[in-house]
Amino acid sequence: MNFKKLNIPEVILCEPKVIGDERGYFFETFREDKFTAFLGKKINFCQDNESKSSYGVLRGLHYQSPPFAQAKLVRVIEGSVLDVVVDLRMGSPTFGQHVAVELNSELKNQLFIPKGFAHGFVVLSKEAIFAYKADNYYNYKSEKGILFNDPELAIDWKLNGNNLKLSEKDAQLPLFRNAEYFETKNQ
What we know:
One of its GO terms (cellular component) is cytosol. By secondary structure, the protein is mainly beta. Helices cover about 5% and strands about 40% of the residues.
């Protein structure tokens, strides 16, 4: 597994070594020792989630407030998505900035998103199966979000707005300036 820090250095792109032949392929999707060594700290994942979505479905931008904030390791099992992460950590040099990465089933790449970030994705392929590990359990009462098309964030979702499919809840999320931010100590 190869790890790369992105423009927001706490957000990590994970690129596996895929071994393939005429029979198919094999790769390690997660290896705690290497992941911990790169991060310099242990992440205790406790919940795995999976969703299936069609072309143009946009899920996000979501996060959970402390003490139920989650670090996530996300990947695409089938298809392709544009994955977007927004820094909500007040006092961070990258506060309010975002990273966008295409994750797809061909590259089998993954993205590590630490606590203190909002997360969302849009499906670029006909369908996508999206999976992720979380280090804290989902808690309905601490679920928060930011409107995907907030002009202050200026996120290029790579699809025309007419092609986007959002839940009613996601279409009514607050703007970034009205979001609940993270104190630096809550990271």
